[in-house]
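Protocol step 4 of 5: obtain the predicted structure for the target chain.
Materials: sequence only (see below). No template structures provided, no constraints applied. The aim of this step is simply to have a reference model before the mutagenesis design in step 5. Sequence pasted as it appears in the construct record:
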Amino acid sequence: MPVDWFPLWLSLRVAFCATVISLVLGLWLAWVLARRSFAGREIIQAVATFPYALPPLIAGTYCILTLAHSEYAFTWHIGVLAGAVGIFPLMVRGSRRAFQTRNLNYENAARSLGASEWRVFWYIALPLAYEPILSAAAVAFARVLTEFAAVVLIAFALTTGVSPFPVALVSVIVIIALVAVYLSNRLEHEGRTRP
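Step 4 output (structure tokens):
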């Protein structure tokens, strides 16, 4: 019997989109939390970290119930939203730590030469912190991929009656997730050994 690869392609699409959304929003919030002290900072950190405490099923169910009467209910867009919410704390914490541990002398030198905060971020802070940020993004991608793939495979099995899951399909999903985690570990190691 031929393997239907649709669950893999759908899971890859959802994982990629959720990782990009979480990366963009997480970078912004991490930069603000690493650079500024303001009233309510701890509350924002707690809210940003809260999805860690939620099982993915709860976050996904909340997204579905919130958008139940929307045209996007029960589509892959909900999977992207649930995935992005689930990995957002990982992106914020990883990026914030990367921004906090970098050498500030380069940023201060750029500011003293008239560089705007925008230029300091894009040309100095981000290039100095990219390895831990990409490491967090790789783990986040693997997490969304495996979680969403599990949900899709269960739904696929229930609707088509195909059971057990095709070994080839599950193996490819596991290998992709393993490669993502391996790349994360390599990036983390490279970041620590760089002078």
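Step 4 remarks: The radius of gyration is 19 Å. The first helix runs from residue 6 to 35.
Proceed to step 5.
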